Amino acid sequence: MTATYFVVDVRDETVRVIPDIEGACLTCQGHCTERTTGIVVENTRHIPVQPGDKVKIGSRSPWDVAKNILALAVPFVCAVLGYRLAHRMLRTPQDSILAASAFICLAVGALIVYVAARIRPSTRYLEITARIP
């Protein structure tokens, strides 16, 4: 993911930016809070920026890959564990009970991923990748 933003505030290694209103934002009729308050991104590459500069931000690739793998793996592992647990607990398990157990554990795994995504928002892993002259 790469997007163009304007720098609003600079503090140490964090920078508050607002989106550039070219493109889709020009035709949007919504009142985006992101446009008025901005988002905080990191400047880990120590690119010299000041308020008013136009910058590109992107996400750190390793974090994107890890988030996507975990978002798929956690529910899958939970479903497998639910199936195995139901199989061990019941002497003569029926397929419908095994499937229901796997589905319930899959839903719990998806809920875990959802809650984890709310606790640690994805904007935490955004960084300035370049300054546009």
Report on the architecture of this protein.
This protein is an alpha+beta fold and 133 residues long. It is 47% helix and 25% strand. The chain contains four helices and five strands; from the N terminus they run E-E-H-H-E-E-H-H-E. A five-stranded antiparallel beta sheet has the order 3-2-1-4-5. Strand 1 and strand 2 form a beta hairpin. Helix 3 runs antiparallel to helix 4. The protein is rod-shaped, with a radius of gyration of 22 Å. The two termini are 20 Å apart. The mean pLDDT is 82.
Brief overview:
The chain is α+β, with helices and mostly antiparallel strands and 133 residues long. The protein is built from 4 helices and 5 strands; from the N terminus they run ββααββααβ. Strand 1 (2-11) and strand 2 (14-19) form a beta hairpin.
